[in-house]
Amino acid sequence: MTSSSPGPGRPRRLRLEPSEEELDGLPPRSTPAQRRRWWLVGGLAVAVMVALAVWFGLSATVGRVHWVTTGHQVVSDAQVDVRFDLRRDPGRAVVCQLEAQDASHAVVGRTEVTVGPSPESPSRHVETVRTASPAITGYVERCWYADEAPPGRG
User: Fold this and answer.
1) Which among 7, 8, 63, 110 has most CB atoms closer than 10 A?
2) Could you tell me the pTM of the whole model?
3) Strand ranges of the sheet holding 123-130, from the earlier edge strand across to the other edge
4) pLDDT on residue 154
């Protein structure tokens, strides 16, 4: 049996290269050097985008006041103590607006406190908010450097 078709039980040979007719009308294949160059260009583009994202993120936060409300204590029907941490330029005074809310989320007390320069950052603080009616929570609403204008509400 000398036919070109495989017999039963014989696997058919696969052609790895396309024929000339199959290649007609297709764009030429890229070489390994061209593919390597595109990988390099793509990798550089990704690296530049990551660097820009990091730069934008840092420039938006460096030099700003950051605070975290770490707790509160309802002292009486007319007072809430708010505990918070400040991360800021330790040589500058900071003003923080503290608020207290009742069970219906209405603001029942608000005060601004000035925290003077500190030898270290972050620093922990406890300040009092006087309330007009019983409050269930107290928190820091916003902070800013004392020598700058307060930020607008967004």
Assistant:
1) 110
2) 0.61
3) 66-76, 79-87, 123-130
4) 46
